[in-house]
């Protein structure tokens, strides 16, 4: 078992003696600069997540937000740059990361880690791959960088809650990308420290992107954080500093954006020489929906046969954690979560809608389940409005448990029929979770890619990509362009037409 060090992080007065060696950003920089080897199971999971990102990018490539981001990136070509998913050419790395980050995030369909806060640590992959392609990094160093990026974001999520102060979770992503790039490029702690400070300073934003009428910015937000982090590392490499101490300063993040000067956070980080293994604590999605609804989709599929005639349902109450209740449940007090005309992004964050459709269909599809004709079905609307959530303290406790065997993201469903009969069932984790009934391994990641790429990516190109990514650790400098998936122009021609903007 590796040794994790807990670091107390609190606001410090400007006049207080607070050496840089005690700054959280410096401690993260030291972790990033530690040349500890990547263990085999960690490296294997990094490959799995690169495959996972490619899968969801293939599924989203024709969607409007992804098309907009791709067109913006195409306005920034360069001779020795990075690749953009689906197309040929080389582009400025921060713009390639932007386009690829949006493609990964658009369908809310890749990996997740939940603790004190939320995260989708797969968002680290596009910016690190883009920088690696730009600078001709070898595949083994990309894996090292991604192990660091996952480690830092996941441990920030364990130690610092952003959402209770309505700060978006991408504020943990900027520092993790900066740290991961630092590891990948073998930068010194001083440079990484400055990049982390800049990245955090510039990626704090409110959670309104995930509240009310949720727009396409939900997909853009993490891509923007990755883009900003790349630019921060570039400036730091040129000798530029950052606001410091960024978390602990008198006018810093904790004092004014989080719990204030009286609060102490405890952030775990691996000690010197300890391997970076946090990626193994994260989990991907079998269904294209917000993670806390994954288990509930599986539960709904399981309950269909027990219920029989769904029109006999009088009420459905989902007893669940605080997070699920207030973010995607009725505790959010968002009327949009019951609106058939709501955006896909909003429906994705309505567990009432998701549970209703999963009960009726016994399945979930990244497009069909959100289609306007699906959300407007009268029987769906009727069932949807019978569903509510309540917080159960036990589910909240399990959500925050540090024991992997006890940690849960599920709920207990109490279904009352018109006859008065009550049907109950519960589920702790999704079927695809590492502790679920069908945990994802390499075979499932490959199947997810080939399924979502069907009709989008030619079979020969699918196989070429899978062969390349499974050998990523052996790719020599200049070889990481092989991680791009090319899509036939006849497929891309189906993408929406985008009006001109500032970038041409």
From TrEMBL:
<protein>
    <recommendedName>
        <fullName>2-methylcitrate dehydratase</fullName>
        <ecNumber>4.2.1.3</ecNumber>
        <ecNumber>4.2.1.79</ecNumber>
    </recommendedName>
</protein>
<dbReference type="InterPro" id="IPR053420">
    <property type="entry name" value="2-Methylcitrate_Dehydratase"/>
</dbReference>
<dbReference type="InterPro" id="IPR042183">
    <property type="entry name" value="MmgE/PrpD_sf_1"/>
</dbReference>
<comment type="pathway">
    <text>Carbohydrate metabolism; tricarboxylic acid cycle; isocitrate from oxaloacetate: step 1/2.</text>
</comment>
<dbReference type="GO" id="GO:0006099">
    <property type="term" value="P:tricarboxylic acid cycle"/>
</dbReference>
<dbReference type="InterPro" id="IPR045337">
    <property type="entry name" value="MmgE_PrpD_C"/>
</dbReference>
<dbReference type="GO" id="GO:0003994">
    <property type="term" value="F:aconitate hydratase activity"/>
</dbReference>
<feature type="domain" description="MmgE/PrpD C-terminal">
    <location>
        <begin position="287"/>
        <end position="471"/>
    </location>
</feature>
<dbReference type="GO" id="GO:0047547">
    <property type="term" value="F:2-methylcitrate dehydratase activity"/>
</dbReference>
<dbReference type="Pfam" id="PF03972">
    <property type="entry name" value="MmgE_PrpD_N"/>
</dbReference>
<dbReference type="InterPro" id="IPR042188">
    <property type="entry name" value="MmgE/PrpD_sf_2"/>
</dbReference>
<dbReference type="InterPro" id="IPR036148">
    <property type="entry name" value="MmgE/PrpD_sf"/>
</dbReference>
<dbReference type="Pfam" id="PF19305">
    <property type="entry name" value="MmgE_PrpD_C"/>
</dbReference>
<comment type="pathway">
    <text>Organic acid metabolism; propanoate degradation.</text>
</comment>
<dbReference type="InterPro" id="IPR005656">
    <property type="entry name" value="MmgE_PrpD"/>
</dbReference>
<comment type="function">
    <text>Involved in the catabolism of short chain fatty acids (SCFA) via the tricarboxylic acid (TCA)(acetyl degradation route) and via the 2-methylcitrate cycle I (propionate degradation route). Catalyzes the dehydration of 2-methylcitrate (2-MC) to yield the cis isomer of 2-methyl-aconitate. Could also catalyze the dehydration of citrate and the hydration of cis-aconitate.</text>
</comment>
<comment type="similarity">
    <text>Belongs to the PrpD family.</text>
</comment>
<keyword id="KW-0816">Tricarboxylic acid cycle</keyword>
<comment type="subunit">
    <text>Monomer.</text>
</comment>
<dbReference type="InterPro" id="IPR045336">
    <property type="entry name" value="MmgE_PrpD_N"/>
</dbReference>
<feature type="domain" description="MmgE/PrpD N-terminal">
    <location>
        <begin position="22"/>
        <end position="264"/>
    </location>
</feature>
<dbReference type="GO" id="GO:0019541">
    <property type="term" value="P:propionate metabolic process"/>
</dbReference>
<keyword id="KW-0456">Lyase</keyword>
């Amino acid at each position: 078992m590796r040794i994790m060090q807990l670091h107390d992080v609190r606001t410090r007065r400007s006049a207080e003696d607070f050496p840089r060696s005690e700054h959280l950003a410096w401690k993260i920089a030291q972790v990033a600069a530690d040349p500890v080897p990547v263990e085999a199971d960690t490296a294997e999971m990094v490959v799995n997540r690169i495959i996972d990102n490619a899968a969801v990018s293939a599924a989203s490539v024709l969607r409007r937000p992804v098309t907009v981001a791709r067109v913006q990136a195409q306005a920034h070509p360069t001779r020795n740059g990075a690749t953009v998913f689906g197309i040929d050419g080389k582009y400025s790395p921060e713009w390639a990361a932007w386009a690829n980050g949006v493609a990964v995030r658009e369908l809310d369909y890749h990996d997740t880690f939940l603790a004190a806060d939320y995260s989708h640590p797969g968002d680290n992959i596009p910016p690190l791959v883009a920088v690696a392609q730009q600078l001709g990094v070898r595949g083994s160093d990309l894996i090292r960088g991604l192990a660091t990026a996952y480690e830092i974001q996941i441990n920030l999520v364990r130690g610092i809650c952003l959402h209770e102060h309505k700060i978006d979770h991408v504020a943990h992503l900027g520092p993790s990308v900066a740290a991961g790039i630092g590891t990948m490029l073998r930068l010194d702690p001083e440079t990484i420290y400055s990049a982390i400070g800049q990245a955090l300073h510039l990626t704090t934003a409110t959670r309104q992107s995930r509240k009310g009428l949720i727009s396409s910015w939900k997909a853009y937000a993490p891509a923007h954080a990755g883009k900003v982090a790349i630019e921060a590392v570039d400036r730091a490499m040129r000798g530029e500093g950052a606001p410091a101490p960024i978390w602990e300063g008198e006018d810093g993040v904790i004092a004014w954006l989080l719990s204030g000067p009286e609060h102490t956070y405890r952030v775990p980080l691996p000690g010197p020489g300890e391997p970076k293994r946090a990626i193994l604590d994260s989990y991907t999605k079998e269904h294209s929906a917000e993670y806390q609804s994954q288990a509930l989709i599986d539960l709904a599929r399981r309950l269909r046969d027990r219920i029989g005639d769904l029109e006999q349902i009088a009420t459905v109450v989902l007893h669940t954690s605080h997070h699920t209740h207030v973010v995607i449940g009725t505790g959010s007090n968002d009327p949009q979560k019951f609106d058939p005309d709501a955006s896909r992004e909003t429906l994705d964050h309505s567990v009432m809608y998701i549970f209703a459709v999963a009960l009726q269909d016994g399945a979930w599809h990244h497009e069909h389940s959100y289609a306007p004709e699906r959300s407007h079905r009268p029987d769906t609307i009727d069932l949807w409005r019978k569903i509510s959530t309540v917080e159960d303290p036990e589910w909240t406790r399990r959500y925050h448990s540090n024991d992997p065997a006890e940690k849960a993201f599920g709920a207990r469903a109490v279904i009352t029929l018109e006859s008065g009969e009550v049907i109950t069932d519960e589920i702790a984790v999704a079927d695809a979770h590492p502790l679920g009934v069908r945990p994802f391994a390499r075979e499932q990641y490959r199947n997810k890619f080939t399924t979502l790429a069907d009709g989008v990516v030619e079979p020969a190109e699918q196989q070429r990509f899978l062969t390349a990514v499974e050998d990523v650790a052996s790719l020599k400098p200049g070889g990481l362009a092989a991680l791009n998936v090319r899509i036939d122009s006849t497929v891309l021609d189906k993408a929406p037409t985008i009006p001109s903007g500032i970038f041409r």
